[in-house]
Amino acid sequence: MSKNTKTEDSPKSYFGLRKYLQRFNYNYKVVTLTVLSIIMLAFVVYQQGFSYELMLNGNSVGYVKSKSQVNEVIANIDVEILEAYGESAFHKDEIEEVKVREHTKDVVSADALLAQVLPNLTVYKPANVLMVDGAAAVALETKEEAEAILEEIKVEVLEKMESVVALDALTFNQEIEIVEEDVNIHMIYSKDIAKLVLDTSDEAVAVAALTEHETQRMAAMPLEFKDDVKIASDYNAEDLAKVPLEVVASVQVTSTEKIDYSKVKTDDASAYVGVSKVTQTGKAGIKELTKEHKYVNGIISETKVLSEKVLEKPVDQITMVGTKSRPAPIYNGNKGQSIVTEARKYLGIKYKAGGTTPSTGFDCSGFTKYVYAQFGISIPGSVSGQWNSGSARVTRSQLQPGDIVVYTGHTGIYIGGGKMIHAPFAGRNVEIGSINHVKGFLGGIRP
């Protein structure tokens, strides 16, 4: 019975297991698909939490969502530099991307990130740097421009020089060299501006011109490369204007100069002491000089005499100086008093320069000459002539009435008691005054 039962149930059990397995397999697939979907969804959500940070020389510039956007920005940098500055322009900045989390709200478009990168780039171009004493002075596009500037500066200096020299005789006092280097585009100047840097003209003018150039350069810069804070030349305009070149030249010139004559005094025993006479007029000589002028920027800074040759010798001035003793002063009291009496007659006569008579007026020496002429005594008509007339000289303490009192540029007739009659000066008349009121007393003479 049991056998029959087992035999009958087997097919039923087989088909039941099969159905069970079919149901299990279906459920397994459903579960598997569900799990996979959950994993994929989780992965997508996880990935969406990442962004890409663009770094420029180690500094963060901004964020984008994908690596493809980073590649797009990097590719467009070269395009922008090419369009703005030409094929030879390039940058040396280090650019890298970093995959980061927690910045999803900071991401921007590729174009926006490019706009953030460009103003921070340092763009270079091959240029020709003019070196002055080993230091960079200014950079230009071409070597020909640098050489032309140096030549023009020489020409301008040559025009200011007094001596005629060849242009190739001019050199620079500094060591000049033109070196080809990669230079920041903002340090490459036009020929006109570079010349201001090196010129010998007024520094204030150069500073003003360079400042104006910098303003114009900023205005002309491609918009995408501008920066609101600072994108200016690494050179400072005031510093640039402080490297003027020194154009030097050594020029030999030949000229003539006079040779001063000597003044020689010789004793003359036939003339009284205090009397001198020029017996030979002096004459300057002539000499030829060869000089070397050192010019700096067209101005003579140093002169050196290389040789000299006497063309005409000078002639000495010879002056005979008297050594003969004057006669002892003899005083005639009656005569002296008569001279004083005569002199008093002319008190009140007006002073007149060059005057020699009472009718025209007197000057000081004209007055004394006129009074003495009334006694048949002839004396010179000038102060120096009367002093050197050969008359006996007396000291202040030896003065007697009738003597002539002589000063530097003035004279009068002594009347005794420390007083004299004289014609003082314009606006005054012949008057009596103290011999102590006139400066420059020389002494008295007794004709």
Relevant terms:
alpha+beta, disordered N terminus, 447 residues, four-stranded antiparallel sheet, six-stranded antiparallel sheet
Protein model, in words:
The protein is an alpha+beta fold. It has helices spanning 2-47, 67-85, 110-117, 143-160, 191-198, 203-220, 237-240, 333-344, 364-373, 383-387; strands at residues 50-56, 59-64, 90-91, 95-101, 123-132, 135-140, 171-172, 176-184, 247-259, 263-272, 276-280, 285-296, 299-312, 317-324, 356-357, 361-362, 392-394, 404-407, 410-416, 419-422, 431-434, 441-446. A six-stranded antiparallel sheet has the order 17-22-18-19-20-21. Strands 3, 5, 6 and 8 form a four-stranded antiparallel sheet that branches. The longest helix has 46 residues, at 2-47.
- Total helix count? 10
Which value, in Å, is the CA radius of gyration? Answer: 56 Å
Secondary-structure class:
alpha+beta
Strand content: 25-35%
N/C terminus separation = 203 Å
Report the sheet with the most strands, covering strand number, pairing sense and barrel closure: 6 strands, antiparallel
Count the strands?
22
The overall average pLDDT, rounded, is 83
Point out poorly predicted stretches: 1-11, 42-47, 226-235
Overall 3D geometry?
A: rod-shaped
Helix content: 25-40%
Widest β-sheet, arrangement of strands: 17-22-18-19-20-21
